[in-house]
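User: Last request for today: this protein with nicotinamide-adenine-dinucleotide, please.
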Amino acid sequence: MKRILVTGALGQIGSELVPALRGVCGADCVVASDIRMPTGTVDKDGPFEYVDCTEKRLVDEVVRKYEVDSIYHLASLLSATAEEKPHVAWDVNMGGLYRVLEVARENRCAVFFPSSIGAFGPSTPPDRTPQDTLQRPTTMYGVTKVAGELLCDYYHQRFGVDTRGLRYPGLISYVAPPGGGTTDYAVEIFYEAIRNKRYSCFLGPDTCLDMMYMPDAVKAAVDLMNADPTRLVHRNAFNVTAVNFTPEQLGAEIRKHIPEFTIEYEVDPVRQGIADSWPNSLDDSAAREEWDWKPEYDLPSMTRDMLENLRVKLKAG
Ligand code: NAD
Ligand code: SER
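Assistant: Here's the final one, the structure of the complex with nicotinamide-adenine-dinucleotide:
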């Protein structure tokens, strides 16, 4: 039976990954942890522990207490926050990962590490960016993601730790708000479309980025961790993608459901600079070949589902 620890579990991904893992493995087998205290039901539905991932003792104690064998390490600062606080980003993103890997090495745990399109930079081929290519990111977030990918490779090669990871694109979801990224506009736009029928976007109209709906992101993490290791050539940092659009194209899709919806642009130079340094689109054929990755949601089905679920949530709240 698997026993899982999720760090940063109260964030955008963890809020949906924890229930999904509990559904598969049983509630008691999935320990949610964060440095924030839960306001929802995550601590009533299963175990919750305060774990600052930069404190090895805390990670180690929880791993031993629950006899954890797999760690989904989600705790991190995202791209925009990391640019505001680069020193904190280094400590949390690198220091946290290093300590989690050390605990995993000592306790023989597998580790899932989410990297990002942010691991690429302006010199990376921008269209259908290959799996193996030039990575010279110009953000602190990107620096920590490339270094994290390499550190996970190192722990596998040097110590035999079963590390696996994905390069997620921007993630879109309605359960928990995004945590300070450059792609947050693609979530905010849905809230504002329902509440005010208008949205002021901090990225320009033609900023093209890959995105993914959260059910696909959760499925990707679970499927990769369950994949046959003999088929994995890349193991860490698989490119994965699902949809690709600009703010203008997303606005047009939302308008099919809310005809009065309007979008205007008030570009934030910092986040625009980050987005401009990232690829326009990724080639995820390695993930498709090595562990049968295939997303379920395209732009129309994601937009429909987001609006339906968010309307229910906002009415309830
Ligand atoms: P998030 O910001 O929503 O959540 C991160 C969580 O980590 C928060 O709940 C926060 O309280 C917690 N945290 C912060 N510092 C911590 C510490 N020292 N110890 C323990 N917990 C701490 O992030 P997310 O969107 O859920 O992303 C999770 C991971 O996936 C990150 O590594 C992120 O870089 C990566 N990722 C996310 C996206 C996306 O669009 N959401 C895209 C690519 C990659
Ligand atoms: N959505 C994330 C961010 O914008 C991508 O890693 O930071």
